[in-house]
Protein backbone atom coordinates (compact mmCIF):
# COMPACT_ATOMS: atom_id res chain seq x y z
CA UNK A 1 0.00 0.00 0.00
CA UNK A 2 2.67 2.52 1.01
CA UNK A 3 4.66 1.51 -2.06
CA UNK A 4 1.69 2.20 -4.25
CA UNK A 5 1.18 5.56 -2.60
CA UNK A 6 4.74 6.69 -3.16
CA UNK A 7 4.72 5.50 -6.77
CA UNK A 8 1.48 7.02 -7.84
CA UNK A 9 1.68 10.08 -5.69
CA UNK A 10 -2.06 10.02 -5.07
CA UNK A 11 -4.09 8.48 -2.35
CA UNK A 12 -5.22 4.96 -3.24
CA UNK A 13 -8.12 5.36 -0.88
CA UNK A 14 -11.25 7.02 -2.11
CA UNK A 15 -11.91 10.21 -0.17
CA UNK A 16 -14.53 9.84 2.51
CA UNK A 17 -16.38 12.65 0.77
CA UNK A 18 -17.05 10.58 -2.34
CA UNK A 19 -20.79 10.52 -2.79
CA UNK A 20 -22.89 7.93 -4.52
CA UNK A 21 -26.30 8.98 -5.74
CA UNK A 22 -28.92 6.64 -7.01
CA UNK A 23 -31.95 8.07 -8.68
CA UNK A 24 -34.07 4.93 -8.53
CA UNK A 25 -37.25 4.63 -10.56
CA UNK A 26 -39.71 1.92 -9.67
CA UNK A 27 -42.20 1.67 -12.55
CA UNK A 28 -45.96 1.66 -12.12
CA UNK A 29 -47.32 -1.80 -12.98
CA UNK A 30 -50.69 -2.97 -14.12
CA UNK A 31 -52.79 -5.51 -12.25
CA UNK A 32 -52.36 -6.72 -8.70
CA UNK A 33 -49.56 -4.74 -7.12
CA UNK A 34 -47.43 -5.45 -4.10
CA UNK A 35 -44.60 -3.12 -3.25
CA UNK A 36 -41.35 -4.63 -4.47
CA UNK A 37 -38.58 -5.92 -2.26
CA UNK A 38 -35.43 -3.98 -3.11
CA UNK A 39 -31.78 -4.59 -2.33
CA UNK A 40 -28.98 -2.37 -3.59
CA UNK A 41 -25.41 -3.32 -2.86
CA UNK A 42 -21.84 -3.01 -4.10
CA UNK A 43 -19.71 -6.00 -5.03
CA UNK A 44 -15.98 -6.01 -5.63
CA UNK A 45 -14.36 -7.53 -8.71
CA UNK A 46 -14.54 -11.00 -7.19
CA UNK A 47 -18.29 -10.80 -6.74
CA UNK A 48 -18.08 -10.34 -2.98
CA UNK A 49 -20.35 -7.82 -1.39
CA UNK A 50 -18.57 -4.89 0.25
CA UNK A 51 -21.58 -2.76 1.14
CA UNK A 52 -25.33 -3.09 1.31
CA UNK A 53 -26.88 0.29 0.58
CA UNK A 54 -30.60 -0.38 0.49
CA UNK A 55 -32.86 -3.10 1.84
CA UNK A 56 -36.57 -2.50 1.50
CA UNK A 57 -38.36 -5.55 2.68
CA UNK A 58 -41.15 -7.18 4.66
CA UNK A 59 -40.85 -10.00 7.20
CA UNK A 60 -37.86 -12.35 7.31
CA UNK A 61 -39.88 -15.03 5.53
CA UNK A 62 -39.64 -13.08 2.26
CA UNK A 63 -35.93 -12.19 2.39
CA UNK A 64 -35.13 -15.37 0.44
CA UNK A 65 -37.02 -13.99 -2.54
CA UNK A 66 -34.31 -11.36 -3.02
CA UNK A 67 -32.35 -14.27 -4.45
CA UNK A 68 -28.85 -13.09 -5.10
CA UNK A 69 -28.63 -10.60 -2.25
CA UNK A 70 -29.95 -13.21 0.19
CA UNK A 71 -27.54 -15.91 -1.00
CA UNK A 72 -24.46 -13.74 -1.18
CA UNK A 73 -25.09 -11.31 1.65
CA UNK A 74 -28.18 -11.46 3.83
CA UNK A 75 -28.15 -15.04 5.02
CA UNK A 76 -24.53 -14.82 6.08
CA UNK A 77 -24.78 -11.56 7.99
CA UNK A 78 -27.64 -11.11 10.40
CA UNK A 79 -26.23 -7.78 11.60
CA UNK A 80 -26.62 -6.23 8.15
CA UNK A 81 -30.20 -7.44 7.90
CA UNK A 82 -31.05 -6.00 11.30
CA UNK A 83 -29.22 -2.75 10.60
CA UNK A 84 -30.83 -2.21 7.20
CA UNK A 85 -34.45 -2.95 7.96
CA UNK A 86 -36.63 -0.58 6.05
CA UNK A 87 -40.20 -0.82 4.80
CA UNK A 88 -41.09 -1.43 1.15
CA UNK A 89 -42.18 1.49 -1.02
CA UNK A 90 -44.61 1.82 -3.91
CA UNK A 91 -43.80 2.70 -7.51
CA UNK A 92 -42.16 6.11 -7.80
CA UNK A 93 -38.90 8.01 -7.97
CA UNK A 94 -36.47 7.78 -5.09
CA UNK A 95 -33.36 9.92 -4.73
CA UNK A 96 -30.92 8.04 -2.56
CA UNK A 97 -27.55 9.31 -1.37
CA UNK A 98 -24.69 7.36 0.18
CA UNK A 99 -21.09 7.84 1.13
CA UNK A 100 -18.73 5.47 -0.68
CA UNK A 101 -18.03 3.38 2.41
CA UNK A 102 -17.85 -0.35 3.00
CA UNK A 103 -19.94 -2.26 5.55
CA UNK A 104 -17.38 -1.39 8.24
CA UNK A 105 -17.87 2.26 7.31
CA UNK A 106 -14.35 2.54 5.93
CA UNK A 107 -13.89 4.46 2.64
CA UNK A 108 -13.97 2.20 -0.42
CA UNK A 109 -10.56 1.87 -2.02
CA UNK A 110 -9.96 2.98 -5.57
CA UNK A 111 -10.81 0.17 -7.90
CA UNK A 112 -13.50 -1.56 -9.92
CA UNK A 113 -16.87 -2.38 -8.45
CA UNK A 114 -20.32 -3.43 -9.50
CA UNK A 115 -23.48 -1.77 -8.28
CA UNK A 116 -26.23 -4.36 -8.05
CA UNK A 117 -29.91 -3.56 -7.83
CA UNK A 118 -32.22 -6.52 -7.21
CA UNK A 119 -35.95 -5.85 -7.30
CA UNK A 120 -38.54 -8.55 -6.73
CA UNK A 121 -42.29 -8.17 -6.60
CA UNK A 122 -44.67 -10.74 -5.19
CA UNK A 123 -46.90 -11.95 -8.03
CA UNK A 124 -44.68 -9.86 -10.26
CA UNK A 125 -41.28 -10.11 -11.86
CA UNK A 126 -37.68 -9.70 -10.88
CA UNK A 127 -34.90 -7.45 -12.11
CA UNK A 128 -31.25 -8.03 -11.40
CA UNK A 129 -29.36 -4.97 -12.60
CA UNK A 130 -25.57 -4.75 -12.75
CA UNK A 131 -23.75 -1.47 -13.21
CA UNK A 132 -19.95 -1.73 -13.22
CA UNK A 133 -18.14 1.40 -12.05
CA UNK A 134 -14.67 2.57 -11.06
CA UNK A 135 -13.67 4.68 -8.11
CA UNK A 136 -10.66 6.67 -9.30
CA UNK A 137 -11.18 10.17 -7.96
CA UNK A 138 -13.28 11.28 -10.92
CA UNK A 139 -16.95 11.97 -11.35
CA UNK A 140 -19.02 9.47 -13.28
CA UNK A 141 -22.61 9.14 -14.27
CA UNK A 142 -24.36 6.02 -15.53
CA UNK A 143 -27.80 5.57 -16.98
CA UNK A 144 -29.25 2.33 -15.67
CA UNK A 145 -31.40 0.73 -18.36
CA UNK A 146 -34.96 -0.26 -17.63
CA UNK A 147 -36.03 -3.85 -17.30
CA UNK A 148 -39.04 -5.69 -15.84
CA UNK A 149 -39.10 -4.13 -12.41
CA UNK A 150 -36.93 -1.04 -12.85
CA UNK A 151 -37.54 2.06 -14.96
CA UNK A 152 -34.59 4.01 -16.35
CA UNK A 153 -32.54 5.19 -13.39
CA UNK A 154 -29.40 7.20 -12.78
CA UNK A 155 -26.27 6.35 -10.81
CA UNK A 156 -23.82 9.15 -10.06
CA UNK A 157 -20.39 9.19 -8.45
CA UNK A 158 -19.46 12.63 -7.16
CA UNK A 159 -16.01 13.21 -5.76
CA UNK B 1 -35.17 -70.46 -5.94
CA UNK B 2 -37.23 -68.11 -7.99
CA UNK B 3 -36.97 -64.40 -7.35
CA UNK B 4 -39.83 -62.19 -8.35
CA UNK B 5 -38.54 -59.44 -10.59
CA UNK B 6 -40.42 -56.83 -8.65
CA UNK B 7 -38.87 -57.93 -5.41
CA UNK B 8 -35.50 -56.75 -6.65
CA UNK B 9 -34.53 -53.33 -5.41
CA UNK B 10 -33.74 -50.58 -7.84
CA UNK B 11 -30.21 -50.33 -6.51
CA UNK B 12 -28.99 -53.72 -7.53
CA UNK B 13 -30.82 -53.58 -10.80
CA UNK B 14 -29.14 -50.40 -11.90
CA UNK B 15 -25.73 -51.53 -10.73
CA UNK B 16 -25.95 -54.68 -12.70
CA UNK B 17 -27.05 -52.77 -15.73
CA UNK B 18 -30.60 -53.95 -16.20
CA UNK B 19 -33.06 -51.67 -17.78
CA UNK B 20 -35.95 -51.74 -15.35
CA UNK B 21 -34.33 -49.71 -12.58
CA UNK B 22 -35.96 -46.62 -11.24
CA UNK B 23 -34.28 -43.52 -9.99
CA UNK B 24 -35.28 -42.48 -6.52
CA UNK B 25 -35.45 -39.01 -5.17
CA UNK B 26 -36.51 -36.71 -2.37
CA UNK B 27 -37.94 -33.43 -3.59
CA UNK B 28 -38.38 -30.77 -0.90
CA UNK B 29 -40.85 -27.92 -1.35
CA UNK B 30 -38.02 -25.46 -0.59
CA UNK B 31 -34.25 -25.71 -0.65
CA UNK B 32 -33.54 -22.27 0.76
CA UNK B 33 -35.60 -20.40 3.31
CA UNK B 34 -35.42 -17.31 5.48
CA UNK B 35 -37.27 -16.91 8.72
CA UNK B 36 -36.59 -15.90 12.30
CA UNK B 37 -39.35 -18.18 13.64
CA UNK B 38 -38.49 -21.55 12.08
CA UNK B 39 -40.19 -22.93 8.98
CA UNK B 40 -42.24 -25.86 7.75
CA UNK B 41 -41.28 -27.64 4.57
CA UNK B 42 -42.72 -30.69 2.83
CA UNK B 43 -40.90 -33.28 0.80
CA UNK B 44 -42.02 -35.79 -1.83
CA UNK B 45 -40.38 -39.19 -1.88
CA UNK B 46 -40.76 -41.43 -4.91
CA UNK B 47 -39.10 -43.85 -7.30
CA UNK B 48 -39.33 -42.30 -10.72
CA UNK B 49 -37.28 -41.97 -13.87
CA UNK B 50 -39.08 -38.77 -14.79
CA UNK B 51 -37.40 -35.76 -13.22
CA UNK B 52 -39.37 -34.43 -11.32
CA UNK B 53 -42.72 -36.18 -11.84
CA UNK B 54 -43.60 -38.78 -9.25
CA UNK B 55 -44.17 -42.38 -10.29
CA UNK B 56 -43.94 -45.29 -7.85
CA UNK B 57 -44.56 -45.39 -4.13
CA UNK B 58 -41.62 -45.37 -1.82
CA UNK B 59 -42.02 -45.36 1.93
CA UNK B 60 -40.63 -42.53 4.03
CA UNK B 61 -40.11 -44.67 7.14
CA UNK B 62 -36.38 -44.77 6.61
CA UNK B 63 -35.98 -41.07 5.97
CA UNK B 64 -33.31 -39.64 8.26
CA UNK B 65 -33.39 -35.91 8.81
CA UNK B 66 -30.33 -34.43 10.49
CA UNK B 67 -30.49 -30.93 11.96
CA UNK B 68 -27.58 -28.45 11.78
CA UNK B 69 -26.60 -29.44 15.34
CA UNK B 70 -26.30 -33.08 14.26
CA UNK B 71 -29.46 -34.22 16.04
CA UNK B 72 -32.13 -36.30 14.38
CA UNK B 73 -35.38 -34.53 13.47
CA UNK B 74 -38.66 -36.44 13.44
CA UNK B 75 -41.13 -35.77 10.69
CA UNK B 76 -44.25 -33.85 11.69
CA UNK B 77 -46.60 -36.08 9.73
CA UNK B 78 -46.43 -38.25 6.67
CA UNK B 79 -48.64 -39.74 4.02
CA UNK B 80 -48.01 -42.68 1.75
CA UNK B 81 -49.83 -42.66 -1.55
CA UNK B 82 -49.67 -44.77 -4.66
CA UNK B 83 -47.27 -42.47 -6.44
CA UNK B 84 -45.26 -40.92 -3.61
CA UNK B 85 -44.88 -40.43 0.08
CA UNK B 86 -45.09 -36.96 1.56
CA UNK B 87 -43.52 -35.77 4.79
CA UNK B 88 -43.93 -32.59 6.76
CA UNK B 89 -40.75 -31.30 8.40
CA UNK B 90 -40.30 -28.49 10.89
CA UNK B 91 -37.01 -26.62 10.68
CA UNK B 92 -36.36 -25.05 14.03
CA UNK B 93 -32.80 -23.79 13.81
CA UNK B 94 -30.83 -21.82 11.28
CA UNK B 95 -28.51 -23.98 9.22
CA UNK B 96 -28.59 -26.85 6.78
CA UNK B 97 -30.72 -29.96 7.24
CA UNK B 98 -29.74 -33.19 5.55
CA UNK B 99 -32.48 -35.48 4.25
CA UNK B 100 -31.16 -38.95 3.60
CA UNK B 101 -32.49 -42.41 2.81
CA UNK B 102 -30.44 -45.54 2.50
CA UNK B 103 -26.84 -45.88 3.46
CA UNK B 104 -27.23 -49.40 4.84
CA UNK B 105 -25.57 -52.26 3.03
CA UNK B 106 -27.69 -54.62 1.01
CA UNK B 107 -26.33 -57.87 -0.40
CA UNK B 108 -27.04 -59.49 -3.73
CA UNK B 109 -25.66 -62.81 -4.78
CA UNK B 110 -25.92 -63.86 -8.41
CA UNK B 111 -25.18 -67.23 -9.95
CA UNK B 112 -25.73 -69.26 -13.05
CA UNK B 113 -26.66 -72.86 -13.64
CA UNK B 114 -24.73 -74.97 -16.09
CA UNK B 115 -26.11 -74.80 -19.58
CA UNK B 116 -28.19 -71.74 -18.75
CA UNK B 117 -27.10 -68.19 -19.54
CA UNK B 118 -29.61 -66.67 -17.19
CA UNK B 119 -28.45 -64.97 -14.02
CA UNK B 120 -30.26 -65.95 -10.87
CA UNK B 121 -30.38 -63.83 -7.76
CA UNK B 122 -30.36 -64.36 -4.03
CA UNK B 123 -31.53 -61.25 -2.31
CA UNK B 124 -30.05 -60.33 1.06
CA UNK B 125 -27.48 -63.11 0.89
CA UNK B 126 -23.84 -62.21 1.44
CA UNK B 127 -20.71 -64.10 0.54
CA UNK B 128 -20.50 -65.86 3.89
CA UNK B 129 -24.11 -66.98 3.72
CA UNK B 130 -24.21 -67.97 0.10
CA UNK B 131 -22.50 -71.34 0.41
CA UNK B 132 -25.46 -72.75 2.26
CA UNK B 133 -28.01 -71.22 -0.08
CA UNK B 134 -26.70 -71.72 -3.59
CA UNK B 135 -28.39 -74.63 -5.34
CA UNK B 136 -26.34 -77.63 -6.38
CA UNK B 137 -24.41 -77.03 -9.57
CA UNK B 138 -24.42 -73.24 -9.23
CA UNK B 139 -21.53 -71.55 -11.01
CA UNK B 140 -20.14 -68.04 -11.32
CA UNK B 141 -21.38 -67.04 -7.89
CA UNK B 142 -20.78 -63.36 -7.25
CA UNK B 143 -21.84 -61.20 -4.30
CA UNK B 144 -22.28 -57.48 -4.33
CA UNK B 145 -22.43 -55.25 -1.27
CA UNK B 146 -24.47 -52.25 -2.28
CA UNK B 147 -25.02 -48.84 -0.71
CA UNK B 148 -27.42 -46.23 -1.99
CA UNK B 149 -27.86 -42.73 -0.68
CA UNK B 150 -30.91 -40.69 -1.63
CA UNK B 151 -30.15 -37.16 -0.51
CA UNK B 152 -31.30 -33.59 -0.35
CA UNK B 153 -30.32 -30.53 1.68
CA UNK B 154 -32.53 -27.73 2.97
CA UNK B 155 -31.07 -24.53 4.33
CA UNK B 156 -32.82 -22.15 6.70
CA UNK B 157 -30.98 -18.82 6.88
CA UNK B 158 -27.21 -19.31 7.23
CA UNK B 159 -25.85 -22.49 5.60
CA UNK B 160 -23.97 -24.93 7.81
CA UNK B 161 -21.52 -27.72 7.00
CA UNK B 162 -20.10 -30.78 8.66
CA UNK B 163 -22.29 -33.62 7.43
CA UNK B 164 -21.00 -36.91 8.74
CA UNK B 165 -19.91 -39.61 6.37
CA UNK B 166 -20.04 -43.30 7.16
CA UNK B 167 -16.99 -44.16 5.02
CA UNK B 168 -18.91 -47.06 3.54
CA UNK B 169 -19.60 -47.30 -0.16
CA UNK B 170 -20.05 -44.24 -2.34
CA UNK B 171 -20.76 -40.96 -0.56
CA UNK B 172 -21.35 -37.36 -1.52
CA UNK B 173 -19.24 -34.60 0.01
CA UNK B 174 -20.21 -31.01 -0.77
CA UNK B 175 -17.38 -28.69 -1.79
CA UNK B 176 -19.67 -25.99 -3.11
CA UNK B 177 -22.41 -25.93 -0.48
CA UNK B 178 -25.60 -27.47 -1.95
CA UNK B 179 -27.44 -24.23 -1.16
CA UNK B 180 -24.85 -22.21 -3.08
CA UNK B 181 -25.25 -23.72 -6.53
CA UNK B 182 -26.30 -20.86 -8.78
CA UNK B 183 -27.05 -20.38 -12.43
CA UNK B 184 -23.87 -19.55 -14.35
CA UNK B 185 -21.50 -20.10 -11.42
CA UNK B 186 -19.05 -22.97 -11.30
CA UNK B 187 -19.86 -25.57 -8.65
CA UNK B 188 -17.75 -28.39 -7.27
CA UNK B 189 -18.85 -31.66 -5.64
CA UNK B 190 -16.75 -34.50 -4.34
CA UNK B 191 -17.26 -38.26 -4.10
CA UNK B 192 -15.60 -40.64 -1.71
CA UNK B 193 -15.65 -44.41 -1.79
CA UNK B 194 -15.10 -46.25 1.49
CA UNK B 195 -13.89 -42.94 2.88
CA UNK B 196 -11.34 -42.19 0.16
CA UNK B 197 -11.60 -39.71 -2.74
CA UNK B 198 -12.74 -41.74 -5.72
CA UNK B 199 -11.70 -41.14 -9.29
CA UNK B 200 -13.87 -42.30 -12.17
CA UNK B 201 -17.28 -41.98 -10.53
CA UNK B 202 -19.92 -41.69 -13.26
CA UNK B 203 -22.19 -38.73 -12.67
CA UNK B 204 -25.30 -37.56 -14.48
CA UNK B 205 -27.11 -34.31 -13.79
CA UNK B 206 -30.61 -33.71 -15.15
CA UNK B 207 -32.76 -30.61 -14.87
CA UNK B 208 -36.43 -30.92 -13.94
CA UNK B 209 -39.17 -30.99 -16.54
CA UNK B 210 -38.05 -33.86 -18.77
CA UNK B 211 -41.69 -34.61 -19.59
CA UNK B 212 -41.90 -31.38 -21.51
CA UNK B 213 -38.81 -31.55 -23.66
CA UNK B 214 -37.45 -33.98 -26.27
CA UNK B 215 -33.85 -34.03 -25.18
CA UNK B 216 -33.20 -34.82 -21.52
CA UNK B 217 -30.01 -32.77 -21.80
CA UNK B 218 -28.13 -34.99 -19.38
CA UNK B 219 -24.87 -33.50 -18.19
CA UNK B 220 -22.42 -36.43 -17.94
CA UNK B 221 -19.32 -36.09 -15.81
CA UNK B 222 -16.61 -38.27 -14.33
CA UNK B 223 -14.85 -37.48 -11.08
CA UNK B 224 -11.13 -36.65 -11.28
CA UNK B 225 -8.42 -38.26 -9.18
CA UNK B 226 -9.42 -36.15 -6.19
CA UNK B 227 -12.99 -37.40 -6.53
CA UNK B 228 -14.10 -33.96 -7.74
CA UNK B 229 -16.54 -32.91 -10.43
CA UNK B 230 -16.73 -29.32 -11.70
CA UNK B 231 -19.78 -28.03 -13.51
CA UNK B 232 -21.62 -24.85 -14.41
CA UNK B 233 -25.36 -24.93 -14.91
CA UNK B 234 -26.61 -22.36 -17.39
CA UNK B 235 -30.20 -22.56 -16.20
CA UNK B 236 -31.69 -22.04 -12.78
CA UNK B 237 -33.96 -24.83 -11.64
CA UNK B 238 -34.18 -28.07 -9.72
CA UNK B 239 -31.73 -30.81 -10.62
CA UNK B 240 -31.24 -34.51 -9.96
CA UNK B 241 -27.68 -35.74 -9.67
CA UNK B 242 -27.05 -39.47 -10.05
CA UNK B 243 -23.66 -40.94 -9.26
CA UNK B 244 -22.54 -44.53 -9.51
CA UNK B 245 -19.41 -46.48 -8.77
CA UNK B 246 -18.40 -50.06 -8.07
CA UNK B 247 -15.17 -51.86 -7.51
CA UNK B 248 -13.98 -55.37 -6.76
CA UNK B 249 -12.79 -55.93 -3.22
CA UNK B 250 -10.30 -58.49 -1.97
CA UNK B 251 -10.42 -58.26 1.77
CA UNK B 252 -14.14 -58.14 2.31
CA UNK B 253 -15.34 -61.54 3.55
CA UNK B 254 -18.93 -60.63 2.74
CA UNK B 255 -18.69 -59.55 -0.89
CA UNK B 256 -16.73 -59.72 -4.13
CA UNK B 257 -17.76 -56.26 -5.25
CA UNK B 258 -18.80 -53.13 -3.41
CA UNK B 259 -21.03 -50.71 -5.24
CA UNK B 260 -22.72 -47.45 -4.49
CA UNK B 261 -25.22 -45.02 -5.89
CA UNK B 262 -26.20 -41.49 -5.03
CA UNK B 263 -29.37 -39.62 -5.92
CA UNK B 264 -29.00 -36.00 -4.90
CA UNK B 265 -31.69 -33.39 -5.46
CA UNK B 266 -30.64 -29.74 -5.41
CA UNK B 267 -31.52 -26.41 -6.96
CA UNK B 268 -29.48 -23.99 -8.98
CA UNK B 269 -30.75 -20.61 -7.84
CA UNK B 270 -31.46 -17.71 -10.10
CA UNK B 271 -28.49 -15.39 -10.30
Descriptors:
heterodimer; A: 159 residues; mainly beta; four-stranded antiparallel sheet; 13% helix; disordered N terminus; B: 271 residues; Immunoglobulin-like; eleven-stranded mixed sheet; 2 helices; 5% helix; 47% strand; globular
Can you describe this structure?
With 159 residues, chain A is mostly beta strands. Chain A has three helices and eight strands; from the N terminus they run H-E-E-E-H-H-E-E-E-E-E. Chain A has one domain. Chain A has helices at residues 2-8, 67-72, 78-84, and strands at residues 19-26, 37-43, 49-56, 92-99, 111-120, 126-135, 140-144, 151-158. In chain A, strand 5 (111-120) and strand 6 (126-135) form a beta hairpin. Chain A starts with a helix and ends with a strand. Mean pLDDT of chain A is 90; it is low at 1-12. Chain B is mainly β. Chain B has a single domain (5-105, 145-268), classed as Immunoglobulin-like (Sandwich). Chain B has helices spanning 10-15, 127-133, and strands at 24-28, 32-33, 39-47, 56-57, 64-66, 72-73, 77-80, 85-91, 95-102, 106-113, 120-123, 138-156, 170-174, 186-193, 196-197, 202-207, 219-222, 228-232, 237-248, 257-268. In chain B, a hairpin with a 5-residue loop joins strand 5 (64-66) and strand 6 (72-73). Chain B is globular, with a radius of gyration of 19 Å. Chain B starts with 9 loop residues before the first helix and ends with a strand. Residues 1-20 of chain B have low confidence and may be disordered. The A-B interface holds A 60-64, 67-68, 70-71, 74-76, 78, 126, 128 and B 32-37, 39, 155, 157-159, 179-180, 182, 269-271.
Short description:
Chain A is built from 3 helices and 8 strands. Chain A has 159 residues and is mainly beta. The N and C termini of chain B lie far apart (56 Å).
CATH fold field value of chain B: Immunoglobulin-like
Which range does the strand content of chain B fall in?
Answer: over 45%
Mean pLDDT of chain A: 90
CATH C-level of chain B: Mainly Beta
Number of domains of chain B: 1
- Output mean pLDDT of chain B: 90
Shape of chain A: globular
- Compute the gyration radius of chain B: what is it? 19 Å
Fraction of residues in H or I helices of chain B: under 10%
Q: What's the CATH H-level homologous superfamily of chain B?
A: Immunoglobulins
**Basic shape of chain B:** globular
Q: What would CATH call the architecture of chain B?
A: Sandwich
Overall structural class of chain B, as computed from helix and strand content, comes to: mainly beta
Strand order in the largest sheet of chain A: 4-1-8-7
Termini separation of chain B = 56 Å
Query: How many individual β-strands of chain A?
Result: 8
- SSE arrangement of chain B, N to C: HEEEEEEEEEEEHEEEEEEEEE
